[in-house]
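Bug report (template v2)

What were you trying to do?
Predict the complex of my protein with MTE.

What happened?
Run completed; filing so the output is reviewed.

Input:
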Amino acid sequence: MVGSTMPRKDAMDKVTGKSMYVSDFYLPDMLFVKVLRSPYPYAKIISIDTEPAKSIKGVRGVFTAKDCPGKNRIPIVMDDLRFLAEDYVRFHGEPVALVAGETEESAEQGVRAIKVTYKQLQGVFDPLEAMKPDAPKIYGTDNIFKHWQVRKGDVDKAMREADLVIENEYRTPHQEHAYLEPQGMLAVPTEGGGIQIIGSMQCPFYVREGVSWVLGIPLANVRVVQATTGGGFGGKEDCPSIVAAQAALVAFLTGRPTRIIYTREEDILSMSKRHAAIVKSQYAFKKDGTLIGARVKYYLDAGAYSTLSPVVAWRGTVHSVGPYKCPNVEVDTWAVATNNVPSGAFRGFGSPQVLFAAECQMDEAAYRLGLDPFEIRRRNILRDGDETPTGQRLKAEVGLEACVNHVIEASHWYEKRSKPKCGTKRRGIGCSTVFYGVSLGAGGKHLDRAGAFVQVMYDGSAVFGVGTTEMGQGMQTVLSQIVAEELGLPYENIRPIPTDTHIVPDSGPTVASRTTVMSGQALINAIKPIKEELQRVAGEILECNPNLVTIKHGIATRPDGKGVEVREVLKRCLAERSHLASSGWAVASDTSWDINTGRGDAYITYAFAANVVEVEVDIETGEIDVLNVWASHDVGKAINPQLVEGQIEGGVVQGLGYALMEKVVIEQGIMKNNNLSTYLIPTAVDAPNIEPIIVEKPSNAGPYGAKGFGEQPLMGIAPAVANAIFDAIGMRFYELPITPEKVFAAIKKGGINI
Ligand code: MTE
Ligand code: MOS
C-alpha cells in the first residue's frame, strides 16, 4: 500500500463536479458581504459616513472597526494586523468596512455609497528605502518587523584568504499564488451563541483563533470545517482567517448565515504574496572551488503588517547559503515594513529568493574558476554527517549526491554542456541543488504537533480525520494509504472526513510540507491500540499469540500461513464490544536554535533536490523557450510515487512562472495588474517536458522514512533557468522574472555575434 500509486481519493468528485467548494453552499436566508477597501497605500482616515449605505435597498448592515465585539486584530505572529482599518490605512486594498446585503449586488452598491474622507500620506515602497532613518514610519521606530542573524567562524578572514570572491545583488518580485479558487467563507450562527465556519483554507485552527478574537467568544464556540479547497500554495495559510472573520462578524451581528466570496481582483489586491526581496551576497572560494565563506544580506518587503514575515524570514535565514558546507557564515535578514500589500507564505516560504541567489553565485564561481557547475557543487554539497551552514550536524539522511548523479545522467549533462553555440536560437543547460528543512523546525516549534482520529466499522471500513488539510497536494490519498497499510484493510474501504476543529485537536498549520510526517505519525499512533485489539481477537480465532498475527489486504494470518478474514475478526470484535476507535497525537522531535548566533539544529530533517533546465534563447527576439526540466528529489520515501511526480510537475511549472514571467506590478503602492489577464502565469502550452526522478534516502523523522514533500519542486527552478540562459548566451540576469524584454535589451547592449 505504502509506496504504490493508488488513485486519488478526491479525484472522481473533483472531475465530475461533485466536490463542494464554499461557493457551492447556499443556505436559505443567507446574506452576502462585500468589503470597502482603501484606494490609497497610506492615509489617515478623517471620517467614515456609513449612513448613505444603510439606506440602500437590500443592505442589512454596515460595519467598521468600532462594531467589533472582540479585538480588532487578526492573530498571526505579532498581532499587528488590524481586522478593519482604525485611524490609518497602510496599503492599497486594506479593508475599511463591511457591507451585508440580501444579494451581492446590493452589498456592492452599499460599499460604493460609504463616504470616507482620507488625508493621504507619503508612503514608502521599497525595503531599502524604508530602512533609511528619515523614511516614513509604518512600524515602530525603524520599520523593521524582524531581524535574524547567523554568526559562524570569521567571514572577514575568509574573504581575505579567498582566491575568488563573488559579490552580487539579486532581486526577486512579489509572486501571486493564483490558486484556481479565490478565497471564500460561509459563517453560520449556531445555537448557544456560537459560529460555524465552512470554507477554503489551509489552517482551520488559525481561522478558529481569528474568529474567536474578532467576535470575543471562546474557541469552543467556533467550529471550523474545511470545504473542498481549490489550491492554497501558502496563500490560504493566514489570509483565510481575515476572510472568515469578515463573514463571521456579519453572521454574529445579524444572526443570519453569511457568505463571502472574493472576486479575483480583490483577492490579488489584498491577499498575501511571496515577498519581493533583495539579496546581497558575497561568497569566498579557494581555487579548487571550495566554498570557505559566505556573507548574505537578505531584505524582505514584508508590506504593511508583519503577518507571517518573521517566520518566513527565519526559514530564509536558515536556507540562505544553500545546501553546502561552509565554515564561515554571516547572514542578516530583515523583514521590513513598507506600504505594499502584506506578504506571507508561498511554497518555499522565504527560501526561493535566497536559493536563487545562492545557486547563481555557485554557477558564477564555477565559470570564473573554470569548473563544471556540478563539479563545484560536488566539492561543497552536504553529505551524511556534514554540518549545514547554520551548524546542524546531519544524520545519515542526506540524498543530495544521489540526486545530483541521477540528474546528470538523465539530462546527458556533460554531452549537452560541451555543444558549441551558434545560430540565432541558442541552447543552454543549467543546474541547481537545493535543500529544505521539513516541518516547522525551531521557528515554529510550539505549533509542531498533530492529532488524528480513526474509527473502524464492523464491515471492515474505516473513517479517519486529521487536523491538517487537503488543498490539492494529495493529503487525503497519502494518509488513506497509511491508514490502509497500518490496519491491513483495503484502500477502497478507507474514508477521510473533512477537517473539523471540533473533532481533532489543534494540529498546527498545513504548511512547511509537514503533513505526511506529522499527520501520518499521528494516524499511526491512533491506529496502534485498534491494531492491537484486532490482533488480540484474531489471535483468539487463530489460536495463536496475538503478537505473531499479521494483518494485510483484509486477512489476518498466523506464522504458519493459516488465516481468517478481517471481516470475521470484526464480527467477533462486535460481539466482544471492542473499542475500535482511537485518537493519536504526534509531537515533532526537539530542535535547538540559538537566536543570537543563529546556530543549532534548525529542522527535524531535510529533503534535497537537484534540477537541470534546458532552454533555447532566440537572440533576435529575446524569447526563452524552456525545452526540458529534469528534477530529482530525495523525498525519503514516496508513499504515492505518482503524487510525488505530480508535485514535481506542478512545482516546476510554478517555478518557471517565477523565473520567466510572473511579477505583481506595484507602482508607488498601487497595484496595477490584479487580475489574471495582466498577471500572467504559465499554462499548459508553456509547460516543458518534465522528467521527475524520485530518490529515497529514508529519514527517521517521518513514517516509513518519508521526509514530506510539496514545496521543494519550485525552489531551485529559477536559478537553474538563469544558469541555463548564461550557458546559452553568456549573459547573467540577477533579477527575476527574466522576461524576453530584459534578455533582448541585454543582447542589444552586449552585442552577441549572430
Ligand atoms: N499542491 C497543490 N496541488 N496545491 C497546493 O495548494 N501547496 C504547496 C504544496 N503543494 C499546494 C501543493 C505548499 S505551499 C505546501 S506547504 C505543501 O503542498 C503542503 O502539503 P503537505 O504538507 O501535504 O506536504
Ligand atoms: Mo506552504 S508556503 O508552507 O503553505
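What did the reviewer find?
The longest strand covers residues 291-303. The CA atoms of residues 106 and 201 lie 27 Å apart.
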